[in-house]
Specification:
Helices cover about 75% and strands about 0% of the residues. By secondary structure, the chain is mostly helical. It is globular. About 25% of the residues are buried.
């Protein structure tokens, strides 16, 4: 069953979304987990999203270990990095380093972290490729 949080429109998610909703998303089937995760990424402000990930990394690292590697889509990867970059602009260097150490540490060992970062880059490339195809098709009338 899809958690109530995932059925809400993005504007219904609160800025203070708790880790329990994200935890529920981690246990959904892949497609539903992806959609729910995208709603979180789109609806929450960068700093609220960072706070949510930070809380998960500290209190429920298994949620991040389950959710991040499998729930990212090309859109989700783009939203994830854009939100984290926006949050980074408002944080001190030391705070950024500590946050990412906790976030990526929750994913597991160095191999798991490297696999996640590699997948993140691959998904961002897929997003860029699809965006280019869409523009080429829609604006220029070129099928790629």
């Amino acid at each position: 069953m899809i958690d109530d949080v995932c059925r809400r429109a993005p504007d219904k998610l609160t800025e203070k979304a708790d880790i329990h909703g994200l935890s529920a998303a981690a246990h959904l089937p892949d497609e539903a987990a992806t959609r729910c995760f995208e709603l979180y990424l789109a609806a929450l402000s960068p700093l609220s999203l960072r706070d949510l990930f930070n809380d998960c990394a500290i209190h429920m690292p298994d949620v991040l270990r389950l959710l991040l590697p499998r729930a990212l889509s090309p859109l989700g990867a783009e939203l994830f990095t854009a939100r984290m970059e926006a949050a980074d602009e408002r944080c001190a260097e030391a705070e950024k380093g500590a946050f990412y150490a906790r976030l990526y540490g929750a994913l597991g060992d160095d191999d798991a972290q490297s696999a996640f970062l590699s997948r993140l880059l691959d998904l961002k490339d897929a997003f860029a490729h699809e965006a280019l195809r869409s523009v080429a098709r829609g604006v220029l009338g070129i099928a790629c």
